[in-house]
Amino acid sequence: MASLSSTPSMEEEKEGSVSVQQSNPQSQHIAASSSTMDLPSNPSWFTPKRLLFIFCVVNMINYLDRGTIASNGVNGKKRTCDDKGICKSGSGIQGDFDLTNFQDGLLSSAFMVGLLVSSPVFASLAKSHNPFRLIGVGLSVFTLATAGCGAAPSFWFIAICRMLVGVGEASFISLAAPFIDNNAPISQKTAWLAVFYMCIPTGIAFGYVYGGLVGEHLNWRYAFWGEALLMFPFAVFGFVVKPLQLKGFSSVESKKALTPMETVSAVTDDLDASKVKGPILVGGDGISADELNKTSKSLDIHNILNRLSQFGNDMKVLLVDKVYVVNVLGYVAYTFVLGAYGYWGPKAGYNIYHMKSADMLFGGITVVCGIFGTIVGGFILDHMSATINHAFILLSGATFLGAISCFSAFCLRNLYGFLVLFAVGELLLFAAQAPVNFVCLHCVEPSLRPLAMAMSTVSIHIFGDVPSSPLFGVVQDHINNWRTTTLMLTSIFVLAAGFWFIGIFLPSVDKCTDENETQVSPNPMVDMKTLPDGNGDKGPAEVQDSNFRPPC
């Protein structure tokens, strides 16, 4: 008893340690120095640059899939018959399943449904589950779904698989960019985002070529099986490697949020395994198995309601954030035009300038300008000093100049003059890719980043590229003038530039920078050389203050 009374409680120890740290800041410096000395001489192999490389490869495979299913070798053509009754067999997905153009279009819609519904779900789950593991779950779904597309026996089977491909891609789209921005060097954050988003046009271009070659020499099914094999190692990697913790998300809080359910579930599993009957003791009270099951169900419902309530609160925060809303509105208008360009551009070029190889010309210009424009935009913003205000200046300026260049291109009668001006315009327009996502990430608190990226993705598709193509077709059917319709479409870029111009004058605070100024890591070497893990173990940088949150 004497020994118990003389031993201080854990709470007293914590209070004592906190008071010592507050009263003696020198001890913090000594502890930080000793922690640095205890670090291994060689940092973990999983460095930020390797994280960027892995995420870029995964992003390229994601968009390789989009290009693959749109390629002639995989999508194919339906069976046709002439007036004499002579029929030509179809090819690819459309030919094998004898699909109408409407059914063929549903495959794209099914993918979008899976992507748009799942993106906010994965973003919300990141608050209670490790985000890196969620990416692993998504990549696993992607792998199984693409393999299912290759083995599909019917149209509805492949339609469901395409929806699941969208579900698998949703986790990566919502969570990858926050990881990259968290671990990028401060002076190169936008450049790293630019490299990541450069993989979008590159992946689509490779998908066209890959799908065409595989469909021509083997069979369209092998193209999907090849995708599954390419993604499989990364899906395994997402579960095997020590999970990273996304900064702004406390692993301790996540565990506390899960503790009630996990405890009840564990006890319930034990009951099922041992088939215990009658009352049992939980926390000193006798509770029957039936009562425990009811408690478990009530906790499940309560947990779901809490998550829905939290999601609603987070959405309110985003919707009242003027910087975020203005940025997304500009992004919607921007994507509205680019989406219609991607679908109708080659056909418009053929009808206006009578191009013989409109597909190759438009595709080549888009890929080259997409790659270089995206990278250049990122490096320019970093050179300007990456701030939200500078990002809006670059967004509005580059988009407005790009709109003028593209508008002037479609006004010209000369084909070569059109190609030069259109290439310059696309180069300027793609420079917006990295800055617009930089604003999405930095205008919100770190804990809201996945949801901000998810809702941005949902918005630009629902209000942007999904409705723009059919609306362009309706206007063209009514006007019946390709040049006029295309000029009307291009003018919407000015609307995007206008939204982003308004953003210049909005009061904006970089939530990441603001946090960095008030909280300085006691051991910056940990953040620079190795990536934080999310296994709940405290590293040297966390010893000083359990409430410390690493900078963005």
What does the secondary structure layout of this molecule look like, with pairings?
Layout: H1 2-6, H2 10-23, H3 25-38, H4 48-70, H5 72-75, E1 80-81, E2 87-88, H6 92-96, H7 101-125, H8 131-150, H9 155-183, H10 189-217, H11 220-240, H12 251-274, E3 280-282, E4 285-287, H13 289-319, H14 322-353, H15 358-384, H16 388-411, H17 415-430, H18 433-442, H19 449-479, H20 482-490, H21 492-504, H22 511-518, H23 524-529
Antiparallel strand pairs: 1-2, 3-4
GO molecular function: transmembrane transporter activity
Subcellular location: Membrane
Membrane topology: Multi-pass membrane protein
Q: How does this model look, in words?
A:
- The structure is a single chain.
- The chain has 552 residues and is mainly alpha-helical.
- Among the domains are: 46-76 and 91-248, Up-down Bundle (Growth Hormone, Chain: A); 314-510, MFS general substrate transporter like domains (Growth Hormone, Chain: A, Up-down Bundle).
- Helix content is 76%, strand content 2%.
- The strands form two sheets. It has a two-stranded antiparallel ribbon with strand order 1-2. Strands 3-4 form a two-stranded antiparallel ribbon.
- A hairpin with a 2-residue loop joins strand 3 and strand 4 (285-287).
- Residues 17-28 have a biased composition (Low complexity).
- Residues 29-39 have a biased composition (Polar residues).
- GO terms for molecular function: transmembrane transporter activity.
